[in-house]
């Protein structure tokens, strides 16, 4: 994908080459993806076993130190990558399924239904993702990884729905849609052959951004004690535990945060890079 | 209000584990969950009209009183961090746009990219580690029990939370200020002003700030609302008795009057902030005032 950008006309005046943005994003996300897949087969230590003293500082044996039960923190952070990617992918998938469906529906609907849906999206967007997710978690009886994913997916779907509606309306106003309608295309064929392919590039950039937002929100939920329960090593819960021992072992709060920030930055850079690749008009100016 | 449809009877919060049928029935009568849902809803709406948010299931105190007490923490926290964030973001955002080709302009952009990826609670934990644990300059959390009658202690307790929110908030504000400034820099009126002989700085201050502020103010409104509602995380980090921690506790205890009360008041505040932002935009830009007649 980086080749795509390099083949363009040279743009020496730019501060940061766009291909660099995309490459750094791909490397960071790829690293987390690799670690996440690796934990399925191998981790340095058993994540639940006491492998050292309590609250040991970082050492060669324990790269990020140990927690208050003597478990290896680096192992838990690695598993945290898997949890974060699972939550991000799951939440974005749910948000995409609900949001794109409702957004396309609103764009096709009669005036009244469209107004109602658009107003609903606007009201939901006024509330922060985290707050909506907290309420959905409150609605489910037991906290689990799935309830966290579902809560974030629902919370993000309003943003996706609003964007989809705006983009789809723009496409529907095009002459080729009128032509397709005149030629007798049914609405499913218009949706799948014209609308979705046209709005997909913009949507996918937004999905990458929402992925990062979902990861931060999941960490916040776990930090507040509303996320996935203990066997799941979420970065948010690691940070919450580290805060409890901040007077005796301040190092524990550093590594999980770095892991979290590197993945979110990776996702944001990936989104920026994808947007510039997908939209030639943005490549020159900034 | 739809929260009442959730699983879990609110009466559960009142009774102990070994309660018998009669006790359960009494508890249900007390919280009103034995009535049909429609009747509960009607009751809620009529009390709302009288500004009566009911009493908490758990603490048996007035929901409105509790909210007011907690707003005394959350509102100063939000407003002060908001002001600090503007003071940081406005000059830095303008510099990042004007001096985009210099290293420090680019550095500001990179730092803001970093800032939007950092979760607010991690900033809080790191600040606690440095300023409360190592340097012992500020308390690591809590709020003086006597509240604002001890103004110095109260401000000291709020200092780190304010800085925490301001850091994260200014990172995203900075991006909006920068792009608004870039729009101004490319505008025709700025070129005209310079052609008529004003210096670059003078033109930017006289024409640029007023024009660039309009889109930024609408973002400010959204950011302020987000901070107010999102204070829940920071209040948890610093163990502050604010509106967010009230909501969190209420969710954990399934204390429905408190959940509804907090949501109702927050919604009112969000609407109020939106209204004020709209007003501020019209004060800044006379063109919006003239157009306001044909706007819904």
From TrEMBL, chain A:
<keyword id="KW-1003">Cell membrane</keyword>
<dbReference type="GO" id="GO:0055085">
    <property type="term" value="P:transmembrane transport"/>
</dbReference>
<keyword id="KW-0812">Transmembrane</keyword>
<dbReference type="InterPro" id="IPR050366">
    <property type="entry name" value="BP-dependent_transpt_permease"/>
</dbReference>
<dbReference type="Pfam" id="PF00528">
    <property type="entry name" value="BPD_transp_1"/>
</dbReference>
<feature type="transmembrane region" description="Helical">
    <location>
        <begin position="116"/>
        <end position="139"/>
    </location>
</feature>
<dbReference type="InterPro" id="IPR035906">
    <property type="entry name" value="MetI-like_sf"/>
</dbReference>
<feature type="transmembrane region" description="Helical">
    <location>
        <begin position="246"/>
        <end position="265"/>
    </location>
</feature>
<feature type="transmembrane region" description="Helical">
    <location>
        <begin position="83"/>
        <end position="109"/>
    </location>
</feature>
<keyword id="KW-0472">Membrane</keyword>
<dbReference type="InterPro" id="IPR000515">
    <property type="entry name" value="MetI-like"/>
</dbReference>
<feature type="transmembrane region" description="Helical">
    <location>
        <begin position="20"/>
        <end position="42"/>
    </location>
</feature>
<feature type="transmembrane region" description="Helical">
    <location>
        <begin position="203"/>
        <end position="226"/>
    </location>
</feature>
<comment type="similarity">
    <text>Belongs to the binding-protein-dependent transport system permease family.</text>
</comment>
<keyword id="KW-1133">Transmembrane helix</keyword>
<feature type="transmembrane region" description="Helical">
    <location>
        <begin position="145"/>
        <end position="164"/>
    </location>
</feature>
<dbReference type="GO" id="GO:0005886">
    <property type="term" value="C:plasma membrane"/>
</dbReference>
<feature type="domain" description="ABC transmembrane type-1">
    <location>
        <begin position="81"/>
        <end position="271"/>
    </location>
</feature>
<protein>
    <submittedName>
        <fullName>ABC transporter permease</fullName>
    </submittedName>
</protein>
<keyword id="KW-0813">Transport</keyword>
